[in-house]
Design brief:
431 residues; mainly alpha; 2 domains; 15 helices
């Protein structure tokens, strides 16, 4: 029954995706993050729903009247350079056949990232994308949070098998990244049900992240919550909420959870922690042997997991690839900083202030928790980069073409002072 229901839902949206390509992108994102086909038991488990959504979106992009321009910013140039570099390293990969298979997966994700850049440059569409991301991954966070509460935290929360977020560590990282999106949705909600629903999603995803029993996720949670408080409009109220809920959650978790978290300090005695160190040492040896190109995709195959986004890129893409990866993250952060400074006192752009702030919090969570997890090519982080770029573009458009002055009363015109904006990069479009 689930197979049939999912099929009817997806196939009913495919024609709409052809006429409204952004709908196809939202469908692709929902299928990719939630993986609803993994919750079925019949033919739908292996049915190519994601590929069909991508094809419908591409077809709609070709035939629709939607703008077909890729915005060229510094961040986009860095991303393109990184993709080209990954292509080059694949030619020199240690395991060439496996490397091309992985490159095929990565390039498909990046194609959809660039489609995101083409289609989603508006407040409404960016908010819809944030909603899809939050609900797609948040489904497992809400379910996992309830599961953690009902079972007393005695079992690990897992994601859907054979996906990016299938393991407890991977799911923990993804949940850390979407918690700030729930906060953004709460800030933008106009109805009390939506506000309280977003708050419930935020809290349950946080509980589920703890319930994954991932030590890397725990470190990421601390960093994410710290920045979430710093970036929140109502810092004091949010600080009280965190100060009250964290001790309760800590006391609620069973002794087995406390014992596992305690191994963070005594990592020499933990086999899993030592495997991470061995993997990092292996990545450094590969990079030492070939510092320019690295070992290519899947250089860790048959030996170990990368266990770190940084060592994964270092081992597979060399030092040049690692520098490009770090530059992409830093430039995205700086774009968010520019958005926040620019929109701080502009009521019409308060949403951009909130979105950029929460995307920065997600970046921090990814950067910290990713130190212990090999998810360097996770599609969620690259779509968040695209969202930050698009938010910057929307803000620049508003500043360069502000709306007409507002009428205050009979014949009285209130002329709002033009905010002082420090130039940040350049934006142009490929024709």
């Amino acid at each position: 029954m689930r197979d049939l229901a999912l099929s009817v839902f997806v196939f009913s949206l495919l024609p709409l995706a052809f006429y409204r390509p952004y709908v196809g992108l939202l469908l692709w994102s929902w299928l990719g993050y939630m993986n609803p086909h993994k919750l079925t038991w019949g033919f739908a488990v292996y049915f190519p729903f994601v590929q069909m959504a991508a094809i419908a979106t591409l077809a709609g992009l070709v035939f629709s009247k939607e703008p077909k321009r890729i915005p060229i910013t510094f961040e986009v140039v860095v991303l393109i350079t990184f993709i080209v570099w990954m292509l080059i390293t694949t030619f020199f990969a240690t395991f060439e056949r496996l490397a091309w298979v992985q490159f095929d997966k990565v390039i498909k994700i990046q194609i959809m990232v660039f489609i995101t850049l083409m289609l989603m440059a508006s407040k409404e569409r960016l908010t819809l994308l944030a909603l899809i991301m939050a609900l797609g991954i948040g489904f497992y966070g809400i379910k996992g949070g309830i599961f953690t509460i009902l079972t007393g935290g005695g079992h690990r929360v897992q994601g859907p098998s054979k996906t990016f977020i299938g393991g407890n560590n991977e799911l923990g990282l993804a949940l850390i990244m979407v918690v700030p999106l729930f906060r953004y949705l709460q800030l933008q909600a106009t109805h009390w049900i939506a506000r309280w629903g977003a708050l419930a999603g935020l809290l349950l995803c946080g509980i589920a992240a703890v319930g994954t029993q991932s030590r890397g996720a725990l470190v990421g949670i601390v960093a994410m919550l710290t920045f979430l408080i710093m970036k929140s409009r109502k810092k004091f109220l949010f600080l009280i909420l965190v100060a009250v809920s964290l001790p309760v959650l800590y006391a609620f978790m069973p002794q087995s959870w406390h014992d596992r978290m305690a191994t963070i300090q005594n990592y020499e005695q933990d086999q899993s922690a030592m495997e991470r160190i061995w993997a990092w040492q292996y990545a450094m040896r590969v990079a030492a042997e070939n510092p320019i190109f690295g070992g290519g995709f899947e250089v860790f195959a048959g030996r170990t997991e990368a266990h770190s986004i940084y060592f994964e890129v270092l081992g597979e893409q060399g030092y040049i690839g690692l520098c490009l990866f770090l530059l992409l993250g830093i430039s995205t952060w700086m774009a968010g900083r520019w958005i926040i400074k620019t929109t701080r006192n502009i009521d019409d752009l308060k949403w951009a202030y909130d979105l950029a702030s929460m995307l920065q919090v997600s970046l921090i969570g990814y950067a910290v928790a990713g130190t212990f997890l090999g998810l360097a090519y996770f599609d969620l982080i690259y779509q968040m980069v695209a969202m930050m770029i698009l938010t910057k573009i929307v803000v620049r458009r508003y500043i360069e073409n502000p709306p007409p002055p507002k009428i205050a009363g009979e014949g009285d015109v209130v002329i709002e002072p033009k905010p002082k904006v420090r130039a940040y990069g350049t934006i142009r479009y490929d024709r």
